[in-house]
Amino acid sequence: MIDNNNNNNNQCSVFISYAHEDKDWKNQILKYLKPYENEGVSVWHDDKLRAGDEWGPEIKQAICHAKIAILLISIDFFNSSFIIEKEVPLILEQYEQHQLIVFPILVYDCPWKKHSWLSKLQVRPTHAKPLSKFDKEKELPTTLTDISEEVKALYEKTIQYQTTTESYGPIVRYMCNRRPQILFFKNCFEKFSEQDSLAPQFYFIHGLEQDKPQSFVTRLTKTFIREKYETNIAPDEFTFIIQIDGGCLEYQKKQLIYDLGMLLTNNNHMHKLQSFKSIVEHFTLHANNAIIISHQVSARLFHNELILYYIQDFWTQGYLNYIQTHDKQPIPQFFLFFNIIYEPFLFFNFSLKKKKIMTYLNGFDVIKESDSVDLLTKRRVLIPELSPVSKSDVIMWFNSNKTKLDNKEKEVNKLFKKRSYKSMARVEEFLEGYCQF
Hints:
Helix content is 45%, strand content 14%. The protein contains 17 helices and 12 strands. The relative contact order is 0.12.
């Protein structure tokens, strides 16, 4: 059903949805896309999935990472319950969120216009003439060439958000893939920016420590956040590790706020930053600017009630109370990132804990009824889980940063010699050698 060129890796630029009866057509499409592999056009295909892979999560991740979804349309395509019930809904969801381009290709005559979601799209080839009706010797090669070139052109448009080495300096090594997370953050960030409110924004990032959540936060800070506040003072960044040392909840709340104040005052033991108001006044000179506070939280020590208090009572309710009495006074925009670090060596307990955390973060029903509920719901965001990096991602990095592969291709091949994917920590280390400043 799905198409890729990286074994057991769900990161790609093109996702192909097809019925197995149309496998020969899928192989034709692959053949014409292959010349663009070194330019970042990678494809998912089910032939290379390993035995034991969970199809549901693999497909969801593949669609989430893809920039373009090619649909090979035929009667067998529509007769496949797996495609229609599993793949198509995911594809349309990404399409409606402007995160995926849908590229239908008609391979055989069939009643495709009866499907409203498809009839709204531009079907290829031109005039919706099925590939099967083209002369195999004279017409088909030209048609497939045109299709592959259009796919390549569409792909190039989708990577315009990626920038060159000169734009971001040393952090350019952080700019490798992470497209699903970037697009998700971008959509939320732009939506919040359109609202007339400086309420704190909360972003939960989760993954293994080796997938570098903190470098992801730095990337967001130096790109989207910095670009919005470029006319003001550069954003202030703080990294704060939340630790649960035991004791009653009330003690933990007080200790948490005290430690936060220590961080914001550069370890001043006599600080008085014990409320949202005191923190705002502490940053008076930075009004209308961004304050980024990045929290590292061990999944093993994740404390639902403490996190809920910190977000709702201290930050959100504190903000609401402040603007009621300081309506026209300037206030910084606070961004709070919670980097939830998973510890895989816990095995079963790790999976169980992860499931509980995801259930909690995805369920807003745990929020207490108050005037701030609506505000919280809109500004509490769970970013898609961080994942390893594929060979094609690294190739795309070189291309998007105007760095030709040349002899570096051999080194990229060595990096992925034993595995089809690498941790972000290893990839960042590798790419740092190609950043000259």
